[in-house]
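[AMINO ACID CHAIN]
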Amino acid sequence: MPSSFPSPFELGPPPGAEGWESMYDWYHLFGDDRRAADENKFWFQDALHHPYVLYPYDEIQCECWWQALGAMNTRVFAVPPAFGLEQRILNGRLYVSPVAAPDEQIAERAAAFAERAGHYYENWDAIYAQWKDKVLDRLNLIRSLSFEPLPDREPLATVTGHLGHSAGFRWERDFSLLVSTMYETYQWHFEMLNIGYAAYLTFFQFCQRAFPGIGDQSVSRMVGGLHVELYRPDDELKRLAKVAVELGVGDQLLEIEDVAEALRQLAGSKWVDEWEATRDPWFQINTDPGHPGGDHRFGTWDDHPEIPYGAVRDYVRRLKAGEDIDRPTARILAERDQVADGYRSLLNPDDVAAFDELLALVRKVFVYIEEHVLYIEHWMWAAFWGKSKQLASSLASMGVVADAEDLFFLRRTEVSELIFDTVASWGTGAPGRGRAYWEPIIARRREIFAALDAWQPPPALGPPPTAVSEPLTVMLWGINTDTVAGWLTDDVDEPGVLRGVAGSPGIVEGPVRVVQSVSQLAEIREGEILVCPATSPAWAPVFSRIAATVSDVGGIMSHTAIVCREYGLPAVVGTGRAVSTLRTGQLVRVDGNTGVVTVL
């Protein structure tokens, strides 16, 4: 059994990917200047958010959360045990390493955190209302930007309106604004998130002290059953199905498989009006299998209307069969209160008030922990990628690049350079250098990207940690000392057994359905066990027809674990290798109480 993971300085590029470093910014790379520090750190691949090779342009998404999470943890709220998370890119994959606060600083940081986070906890509802307003304001700002092809001549209104600047200038200005707005919004992403997790961690630690041996799930079940907007997109699909049945068009939807044909045949009907009214904002749901907004290529439900349409048809079928398609929220709430009441009754009377206060705070902040995903990861990133694709399409139509997808093989700073050259050429009427300069570079990067995509990255780099205590690493990624030990041993002593995090309670047996992207969701059959890298809200419609979920990545507070608890489904998350180990059709037992998956 190996005692360590590969050193990042000993892993060379895959064949054909030589020079891959030029695709990414220098500060994201391992370098000899900081080798002494980096080689002795534990790095794990962020397969939860980025289970694939990063496009150069999409590197901005990693940059946004890298600096925002660190600043809020370290400089703004002074989270006691943890600074931020370092990032490095190796062979196109993102690796991260938690930065622990020095022991001698923890007491002072705890006092500062109590004052700063305490202000937010005391005013949570008002601050959250303001938070929604400012995020929606920036969403509208991004949507207002335009990267239409530059005109042959400005409209007369530019002159008569005394505008004083050109469409070319606006391209430059608005691209800078597009990028800086995402950076700003990501500051807000972590404004309340980490202190929300901290509140949960404080409650969790209280329960561990008060109830020795209490499981992670028992704590998490006391928080479930909340009404959060994150489930609204799926609820809207269910509403569209109910409306179709009420209007008597359900049978037509079941007969017509193609969404375009259905909308054509039902044009002018109230159901089509309802469909169109639902698209914005509830179809602005990214279909990325990792981070919901982490990659430009996947698009939204609105870009792939066959996804929501297929879900509506499935709900119509189930409604006509007399099934209840709604989430079992009442049952989850009853179980939540039953679990909380049971533990409360075991407390020393002096501890009841503290228990109730911490539980009330966790239930309050937990709404934000889930809902921010809708506002930032879906609506904001959907708008950002949409405008980026508009710019790419315009550059292609103007002949600046050969293909719109070429833009995403350039880093954002290189895109700024290309825009300047394009605008200068447009303004003077003289040829620009953009295509001639970038075309061979882009061609080579496409080759490198393909070679990197074929590489199988190790789950971690460097020496394994003696302990993992950073709260986000444990709760969100599901990485702890047992996880790391499993990566090193590859569980060779237990053939047919996968171990992970007990994400949602219950035990079921059934056939496996391996799914790696949202495009495969239509293949899932009633009662199957979903096996996937991770899930996102775009996958929500499948949770009403599967029996359980097994994921490669994620912890007790990952989306997969949370949504399975809300839908009353067993889940084992953070197995590390379920997708590569299990096969569609295999019979397995999923034990969501213990975090064990057994091949039958």
Residues 478 and 555 are 3 Å apart (CA to CA). DSSP finds 21 helices and twelve strands in the chain. The chain has a mean pLDDT of 93. Residues 349-397 form the longest helix (49 residues).
